Amino acid sequence: MTIIFYLINLLYFLFSAKQIKYGLTEYTGRGFLMKSYNRYLKWSLNWYYAIPFLFELRTSIDWMHSKTTLSVFGWLRVAYTKKKVFDTKVNRQNRANTPYGRLVKLPDKLMQGGLIFLIIMLSIVGPLIFFSTFNPIAVVNNPYNA
């Protein structure tokens, strides 16, 4: 068993030596999903941010490999701000062809607002209905004798 740990340590020191010899790549400051501005990259970026702790792990690794005076929390704030600026640029690009002051039409309101309202109501009322006495699974436990 000690030979296995010795080999693992040997591999660790080998890769560390290679890393020290060739150096680490410098942080370029641009995310892999922020190279251009379009709707699909924005959706991909939103899915990337929705995976728990993936953004924080990547950002902390970037912070460890960068020469900076920021704390890790400041670095996270800067990365989050870059994401919000990217979102704003994509939204502005998507709205570039619509004239200013154009009202949102009723079908668009019903599709977007109605869908959000339906999802919220189902998430609030759905469990109440499912676990209530109206549930067909629920069986009344009648007493037989007293």
Explained architecture:
It is a single chain. The chain is mainly alpha-helical and 146 residues long. It has a domain at 31-96. The protein is built from 5 helices and no strands. The protein has helices spanning 2-22, 39-50, 54-64, 72-94, 106-130. The radius of gyration is 27 Å and the shape is flat. The termini are far apart. The mean pLDDT is 83.
Tally of separate helices: 5
Poorly predicted runs: none
- Averaged pLDDT: 83
Radius of gyration: 27 Å
The amount of beta strand, in percent, is under 5%
Order of helices and strands: HHHHH
Q: Please give the share of residues in helix.
A: 55-70%
- Let me know the largest β-sheet: none
Please report the distance between the alpha carbons of the first and last residues. Answer: 68 Å
What is the overall shape? flat
Summing up helix and strand content along with how strands pair, one would put the structural category as mainly alpha
Number of strands: 0
What tags apply to this protein structure?
single chain, 146 residues, mainly alpha, 5 helices, 63% helix
Compose a concise summary of this entry:
By secondary structure, the protein is mostly helical. Helix content is 63%, strand content 0%.
Secondary-structure blueprint:
Layout: H1 2-22, H2 39-50, H3 54-64, H4 72-94, H5 106-130
